[in-house]
Fold these 2 entries.
Entry 1:
Amino acid sequence: MTLKAVNVPDLGGADEVEVIEINVAVGDRIAIDDPLMALESDKASMDMPASAAGVVKAIHVRVGDKVSTGVHAFDVETEDAAAEPASATTESPQPSNQAPNESSANQSAAATPAETPVETAPQDAAGSQRMDIIVPDLGGADSVEVVEVLIASGDTVAEGDGIAVLEGDKASMDLPAMASGVIDELTIAVGQQVKTGDRIGSMTVAGAVKAVPAAAVTKSEPAISGAPSSAPAAPESSASPAEMTPPTAPQSLRPDDGIAGITRVHEQGQKRAGPQSQKTNPRADIYAGPAVRGLARDFGVELSLIQGSGPRGRIVKEDVQNFVKARLNNTSAAPAAGSGVPPVPEVDFSQFGEVEEVALNGIQKATVTSMSRSWLNVPHVTQFDYADVTELEAFRKTLKPEMDARKNKLTPLPFLLLAVARALRENPRFNSSIHPDGTRIFLKKYCNIGIAVDTPNGLMVPVIRDVDQKSVWDLAEESRELAAKARDRKLKPAEMQGGCFTISSLGNIGGEGFTPIVNAPEVAILGVSKLDVRPVWDGSSFQPRQTLPLSLSYDHKVINGADAGRFMTYLCGVLADIRRLLL
Ligand code: CAO
């Protein structure tokens, strides 16, 4: 075991850079090249990779610190000192006698796009000119991956607009357009490896343009490889400034700004306009280091949706993690961004009078989510009717002695459960769910019915299984037990899952009708209101009949009005004459 000091490597001329993110904690096991911290100069941000593998024992810098070349930043306990590369023990900020810039300049001189063709065709009559789009000097990296393609053929771009994002082992970089014009073709795809000098497309540059010499590309591009020996790039003298169409974005980091062992990931202070076509560049102004970009890609998260909390809006690891957590919990009442539903504006109610703020509990928050989801996803229609339950009520009364003997009370609910089970059997589309992609429905061969229960903590919906196979006595007992469990918060998750249909009964509370919200992915719900004596026309006179108001809400994607009419008519028929349950 050896304790090694890991120092800030050569900053290639920059006096001081700011620590804007620390990616490791004491005790973390790290591998060589793992990003230890993110540093930022006035022109660029970059990850500082680990030069030693082992366990982080101490961190000597904090976010906000200004550090310069050679500052002792971390102590890493390594297991085998001999196995570490020479640069691992960074006692000296300059690992070799040769300054990294010189070394890189030499190397780049041999492999720069100065020798890389940036083909330009002669100008046409209108002064337009075809220009090949060439991968610039990658500063020694063999090949890098295309991780994003930002534009398409036909897009109009301004000089400096991002064409693609390239990523090496340690850094990502934008490949900017070297001139303004129209993209004729792009021959790259995400995941493809490219290397210095590759032709990846062509563009037509509007108007008379000066030649865009290879050196212009070479000079302005940052290196993408992280090794000190491969820092950028061609010496300025290799370019012919007088001939250049100056590339906008890349100039923010010149070879002299090169940071050995670290590479630029994003220009600062230069707002990158998107291509001038209708398409917007979703990555405009995204500000994040390679490690964070990698994390976002692992999670499949679009960085443009994340608000950065780091300095100057930089997206840090925690922002990505918090974003993913929030999406997983999905506790927000607000619809997802981009759903097109304008949010209800937040109002400061205290300006109108006294207000008490009450936090919602978990059940209430879950209701917020599920109701919003159902309301936004299900095109609701509600059908109303009255069931004549005069005979049913008379029968129920005759059972009073038996209820007492069994210590089991029969309310209208268990009869409704059984009648609904029979109606579901007769109308199978009501016992279905639709696939989210809208291409198919699933017809369920089982019959589980949820009952909405009003509890002090909020609305809960326990599910009674196999309703069609149970007696009215069983259903009465089970619904009472489940309702009691719901009120005591003793329901298990499994007891609230697997429902096919829901009954929401407000009969014991009052009201003549309401429009219940479908409990998606179910496709229908029955609202039950207060049973009362109402005048019913029998063909020659009004008769006082016990009637039960019913409201059937359904998902019009799956169920048509005629289906609902049949369901309701059947249900009312069974409730009017429960002998039909035998049929
Ligand atoms: N019309 C008139 N009276 C009714 C009735 C109706 N439709 N339904 C039930 N009643 C009567 C019962 O017969 C009982 O009367 P007695 O005490 O005289 O015997 C009384 O109302 C109380 O019944 P209950 O509530 O104990 O039992 P239930 O089987 O009818 O209902 C349950 C059980 C769990 C559904 C109910 O207690 C409940 O929580 N309802 C609220 C559901 C809800 O909140 N829905 C809205 C969801 S969307 O916001």
Entry 2:
Amino acid sequence: MRISQRMGAARPLATTAMHGRVEALKSQGEELIDFSIAISHFPAPAVVRERVAQALLMPALPYTAVGGALALRQTLAAKVGADNRIDASADEIIVTNGAKQALYEALYALTDPGDTVIVLRPYWPAYLATAELLKLKVVLVDLPARLDAAFVAGLPDARILIVNNPHNPTGQVLQRAELARLCAWMGARGCQAIVDESYEKLLFQGEHVSMAACADWRALGIVTLFSASQSYAMMGWRCGFAVAPATVVQAMETLQGPITAAASALSQVATEAAFASGEPRAMLEDYRRRRDLVLDWFGPVPWMRMARPDSGPYLWGDVSALGVDTVAFAEQLLNEWRVAVMPGEALGVPGHIRIGYISDDLATLERGVRAIIAFGNALARRA
Ligand code: PMP
């Protein structure tokens, strides 16, 4: 069968491809430890499961409006007003099958083929993959530790800036002044932004500030993405939404209509319950403990450099001291030690590995980390 030229050149996401490989090995009876993506060992909040169980007793699950049931959009508008200080009404919200769908739709609605998009490196691979599917020109800019005036002034001209705050994989959390600087730059250069705040709830310290709270977000053209996947351990539920000026929401709905129509009615029930459930405190404390344990285990390892992230379910390790290609490192680790990590190449920065540390029980987590250390030590001895 002939495949279109457009799809013939496209590649699966590196992250989901690695996870798919791990799942395939597991289904063949292989025992392995998967740190390649972050799949929480927590279930969805109890209130989500209760509401969905109740919804199953309804006589029928109807199609809702494409952008989501009005009552849900009103709840989400209240959520972003209270939590994120984003003043938005229900017609400025679109409910999607996860943030990925919202990202695709927002980029589709805001750009034409050939337009330039700034992606900060390291990056979540879906930004690049989506931009490539839409034939956009991606300009990669290294994410500095601080977005100071000189950095912001040096950003290239572009149609869209993609910001991920809190940031996967580094856990970096942008401060109010940095966001204000970006907003001023957007206004001066006429660049719009897609701000992915999917990790907003996974903050170990400090404050999450939404970029759209910093300025007149409608005039600047800011689209903010939210997801229950990481905030409420609901990866498989596919619950996300975007906040955008009403005209952008309408364009996104026009695209979503023939593809999925609305998100599933059950997911909408789940989305409403999740985002009304507040802060996932117990989950965050569990993640913090794991983060600190893994940092302690890697502490004495001379070839590993790892900062303590302020947020998120990942540790971003610099293993460049080993002098190895990290794709080969990840391959060998998987083949010989049965531990999967994400090589930095998949996120645009070779010499690093990303470890998702929220998936298993603590004993498995420790076994996996000890295997990485033993493998790296053997490589270091050979070097
Ligand atoms: N944005 C980023 C940067 C992510 O890493 C993730 C989870 N992998 C998501 C969004 C969540 O996407 P979705 O809502 O489609 O599961």
